[in-house]
Please model this.
Amino acid sequence: MEVTVSKRDSQSEPQGGSVYAPLLQIENLTKVFHIRQGFASQDFHAVDNASIVIDSDKPEIFAVVGESGSGKTTLAKMVLGMESSSEGILRYKNRVINDISRREMKSWFYREVQPVFQDPFAAFSPLKRIDSYLYETAQNYRMVADKKEAPRYINEVLSEVGLTLAEIAGRYPNELSGGQAQRVAIARALITKPSLIVADEPVSMLDASLRMSIVNMFRKLKEDNNVSVIYITHDLATAYYTGDRIAVMLRGWIVEMGPTERVLGNPLHPYTQNLKTSIPSIKSEESWNEKIDLAVIETDEYTRTGCKFAGRCPAVMDICHDNVPPSVMHEGRSVKCFLYDDAVDAEKKRMLTPAAL
Amino acid sequence: MGTIIETNNLRAYYITKAYGVERTVKAVDDITLRIQEGEVYGIAGESGCGKSTLLRILLGAYQPPLTVVGGEVIYHLEGETMNAADMTEEQQRDMKWRTISYIPQGSMHVLNPVRRIRDTFHDFISAHRDVTKKESFQLTADYLRDLGLPEKVMASYPHQLSGGMRQRVTIALATILWPKLIFADEPTTALDVVVQRGVIQMLKDVQQKEGSTLVLITHDIGVHANLADRIGILYAGKLVEESDTKTILENPRHPYTRYLIESLPSLDSREERLAIPGRPPALDRPPSGCRFHERCPLAQDVCKTIEPELIEIEPKHFTACHVVEEELNGGHSV
Model:
């Protein structure tokens, strides 16, 4: 379907709006990288069979957590159209992201979906004034009718993130603090009035004190501007604080997914439990006593045949080593673990339920 | 147990001169510390508050523009008392890694990418001890086994290891000669929680095994809570509060410390938490009086002009705040 550039309303629903379409539909999405070492080649599933649906009628903050090398960023890149998917369905407003033409990517998709990256100082060129990014985005996406109108519009957007144009006009990135620069990065993303923001580790470069101001802003954007946010992080505390739903990733798998309060309030997957107990608590009586195992080499876990957590799992069973666990619904969330699979011998499970450990 | 390292009214500024414009950044301003033998001393604060500068001075690894303009650093090591300023370069070099060691932040860039881990270990050990390659490999293997690291890593190149394993190898490397005094600069920042926990455990193990002293710098209060015995809070180049970990976490008195601790999100509640208003001051023109007054909710007139002194408000609990001081002297409560 051909899309015209001038009117925004006609673009937001290219299918005519007759069929209900989720904002973002991810089904059995897989990304395979081929790694060649000499003549040998190895397949590497960076994202393996991921399924996530974000509704269009109710904005939400969807948190994706997991350790480094769990496929979070690859997932984000696919959603942003920066990386093609190998298998599975990836649709934004019922359009297959991989099939959107380059022209339409520019004229429609990037208005709708905007990224925010980890390091604001890497996102902006140190040689360019930071406000020029805002002017350029506003003009390239025709958010303002003419140049004179631009400052007023930009100021309006900046006020959403608690800044004013006067504060940043003419300044270079190094003149701003990390928190300020990250706010400008978010303001830049907001200029096109997107429906979805993909934020990849937006606070991990920032101090704990500044983190809260950024995550509070995501909450506000969701409530006031109807923006959905995919919030990718390894910081469980802020994910719990902001996220409506959460997906826990491990070596390309989504091992547990559901409402944040359920998943983090009472984690079921041994890996999620491991994550939760690893958050350093500031209560002195909650220091850790027992030891945990860490992965030695990440690729070893990726290429495991059975469950990818089997090598470190405290509740590992024989079945885990050779078989991929199914995703089952349990207590209002999906869990990818044999412990919650009814096909596995109940007696064996009882003995190994992590709660008993 | 005595003091192992102390600073007296230490002032260290970055003094730069470009095109005739002189600029002085007061990164460490009048800091007095006493770090005891065998303790874990945590230094906390926002980025740009002078944490890393302080560490550089303590380590003796600094060059102009960073200059010590006042005060002194004194080591009490191996039964000797040494003033850092009087030491020759040779003495310093000999001391480093053998008695004083340093765990850097980015383990990614620390290990030589074209050498196997065991060769890097050999380089470090042979610089201080007369060993053959075979002996140093044996020493390394024993030490790694002690720390619970798989022997497989010895033959690996850095890029083959996961981020957490790399950081733990760096810690092993920094501590293989059993230094008495270990400095760690943000050892767990940029690691995810599970790996962070593994690294903290290992730091604890290393520290307890030989009763070494660990000076831990990080902005993450959660890490301090799990590792440190005492915490010093830095703000804009000044020490604003110091006490044992429990007191700092449960009964912080300085408004800045309170903000730091209250702004931490936790899994206990999803109630809205407020970020600290404003931002850290630029240290080339620090605010007059108390450096926190521009962001402080309790600020009074006196805070804008007179600098508060670090006073002992209860045994071993020091705070630099006019409001707390006034309260203590029977003034009106705030």
In short: The CA atoms of residues 26 and 90 of chain A lie 5 Å apart. Chain A touches chain B through 48 residues (CB under 8 Å).
